[in-house]
Amino acid sequence: MPKILIVDDEPNIIMTLEYTFKKQNFEVFIARDGQEAIEILENEVPDAIILDIMMPNIDGYATLKHIKNQDTLQACKVMFLSAKNKEEDIRKGMDLGADAYMTKPFSLKKMTEKINELLEI
Amino acid sequence: MNSWWLIIILLFYVGLLFFTAHWAEKRKNNRFTNNGIIYSLSLAVYCTAWTYYGSIGVAATSGLNYLPIYIGPIIVAPLWIIILRKIIRISKRNNISSIADFISLRYGNSRTVGALVSIIIIIGVLPYIALQLKAISETFHLVTDTTLSKNFLTDSTTYVSIALALFASYYGTRYVDASEKRSGIITAVALESVLKLVFFVVIGLFVTYGVFNGFADITEKASKLPEFYEKNTIGGIPQALNWFLLILLSMFAIFLLPRQFQTMVIENNREKHLKTATWLFPLYLLIFNIFVFPIAWGGNLLFEGANANPDMYSLLIPKSLGYDFLTILVFLGGFSASISMIVISSISLSTMLSNNILIPYTFIGRFKKEDEDNNAKYIVNIRKIGIFSLIILAFLLYKFFGLDYNLVSIGLISFVIIAQLAPAFFGALFWRRGSKKGMITGLVTGFLICTYTLLIPYGLGDSPLSATWVQDGPAQIEWLKPFALFGLDYLDPVPHALFWSLLANTLLYLTISVSFEGNYRERNYAEMYVDIDQYNNNVEDVYVWRGTAYRKDIEKVLIKFLGEERTQRAMAIFNKKYDIDTNQELADARLVKFAENLLTGRIGTASAKILISSVVKEEKVTLTEVLKILEESKENIDLNKKLIETSRQLKSLSSQLKNANEELLMKDKQKDEFLDTVTHELRTPITAIRASSEILKEDDELPTELKQQFLDNIITESDRLNRLINTILDLDKLESGKQKLLLTETSLKQTIEQAVEALSQLIKMKGITMKFSIDSDSVIYFDEDQITQVLTNILSNAIKFCPVTNGEIQIELIENDDKIQISITDNGPGIPENDLDRIFDKFYQSENQNIKKPIGSGLGLAISKNIVQLHRGEIWAKSNQSGGTSLHFTISKALNYAEDINS
Question: Could you tell me which residues come within 8 angstroms of residue B241 by beta carbon, excluding any fewer than 6 positions away?
Fold first, then answer.
């Protein structure tokens, strides 16, 4: 059973993602900001992480940097999911080492396809 | 007291002066050496041994007559701001290094005038220096109980004089350019001024309160002495005239004495130092004079009938009572007074001797052949030897002629001679028509009258010839009596001489100047002197000169004195100042004047002119032409001033434009940020709606409960979207001024309570304690809906910021005369200092753009700010020391329903 961590501060968006991935037989973890995500990642090693950028306390960029510094998390596939849709925002995200970048609003169908592609399912 | 001991003390003291001078020289332009106080104290070189000892002598023997010499400078000091500033400006712009230069430059830069003035000054001042040496010598012998030795080698004062001469010649000639500032020596003089005053006050206090029982005690006892009352009143009208003339004399002296000109004008670093001098210097003189009376009459009481020299009372009193230490202090004070005068006078005399007599008449040819190094050495050596020999000459004068008069009379004679410069000097400042012929005739005649009425009678001394000559007049001619010329017999000799000499001097100066016009050069400098304020920054412009001159030739002359490097630097400055093409071969009038100025400090005005004239070919200019050229240059200067003003305006306009541009750029950036944030804020609910709809569309088997949830999602997010759009429109309305206030008379207290009530559910949920401190129940005009919105915005933030446990919000209302202030404070984490001002910006995000602030929609505070401003109030935030944030806003009480708030 693949594991996925969803990091976003909007409960209504989380709700849709949670429902969709549970239906796909993922084990789903939820964090409301970067801080919570880092705490979860201390105990869990998910296969994929969906990461918002604009969040309270610790933003998405900083969270990714943290992930990249952890030996145990090297295999994690990380996808940014953000309303920041400018060319330079996307480039910055990819340069930091994200595996994919999807802009809001998004299609859940494309989202699942992309995650499956990343995890080679 | 053993004389060797005293010599050791003196050496130590002179060493201290050397050290001070050395220390200050290294700290030129430092705030300790370059300030108004040092400047004012250096002016106190006016108080010589004559003040220090002589005033007491006069007070003891003839009463109040010691006062006029100090009253004159005190009266004239406030005028310094005008007169002295003018003199300083003229001197600085023309690199003038002595009063002889100052006068001779004005009268056509005449070598003759410079030499004449220098000679008269040297004649006047040399005996005055001798007088100081006499004071040192006599007090030295008095303190050590030795007698004057006729043999030079055994007389210790010889060595003191030599040491002094060395000190002065070493420190007085540090610079080739005589118009340079001598910080070292000036600081040493200022120190001496402090010491002589302090020591004088000490002996004064000692006599008044130690020996006697205060001023009243001395006055009471002294009033029993004969002639006490006669001596301590001014007397009748003749005596008042004497006073008047003496006051006038000292007014002139304070400007004209070479040592005063040196310290006041040449050594002035900044014009603003004058301001300090106008009060500090008179104060100094006043303090000095407080104790003259008690010491003099105390001495008269103590030494009644003992045949003591009243000039020496200040030494005799402590000595006779056995206070050796005090005696030495007094001696050192007098020594200070003497040597400051000797040093400064000899520096200025030697500058005149070299720049106005020796160089222009003898050495000038030699300089043309030599190079810079040799010339500089040569000039310095001439002055060194000059200072040294002047002091030694004065010493010999004292040794051989004895100078048997009391300290005051020689000083006054010196004053009268120097005062002969007054008409020419003050005429130079204010009168354009004064001419060289007029001033020479006046000066020479005045000096001759002085010689006849003062120098000869005093020179003859007690000889039998003097008796008949002075008493009966030469060849028994009554009206030629030197002390009562033309029957004027009620004036004392000094005022008498001053009266006649100055009268003749002034009348001749005026009448001859008016009758015979001066040449064009005199008129040219007259214009420059009188209108110096107008030409302050470009004296070269006003110099009238016509002829042929090559820049190369002038440069060659300059190099001989300034050296290659400094000449090039000076030329570069000149070219830049007047925007001159360096390829130009011919020099113009401005360069001729500029070059003369550069040389003037080194070799004096006259020699500078001679040197420059030798390499240029000047054509004669008529007086009318000069006046025409001057008129034109005046117009040019006015035009220049206008141009400068216009260019200043243009500059300020362009900087305003730049600011406006920057502001626009910033606004543009803010607008971009605003749009960025708005789109982000809009996309978030759209995303939720889009995702929820997708699930509802794709998933047919969705359980009803979940279906319900996703539909709820869509509804709440749509509402949020709508609210957001409304808020943005609100803000736009406020910012564009379309929003009108609906003013009603309402109780603010009630509005606050209602706003809190509306949020009570949230407050209860978070368990927050509310504290109120509202002591006003005023009813004022404001828009209730809008203010409620402000309160709700701030309160919601406060609630969000409050910690999960023990949250606390305090609401405070303070009423002033013109406004009401509301403060809402929470005990949350506070806002970073940098962000305090920015939280009222639209969609403010903290420094890190990607951190979402917990406030949520970032428009709340921006809207609040606009509303408060419409209420003519202010809004601001503060972070508290103990944590937590306070938001404060005010509402003006001056609003009323009738007024259109947006007009």
Answer: B490, B491, B495
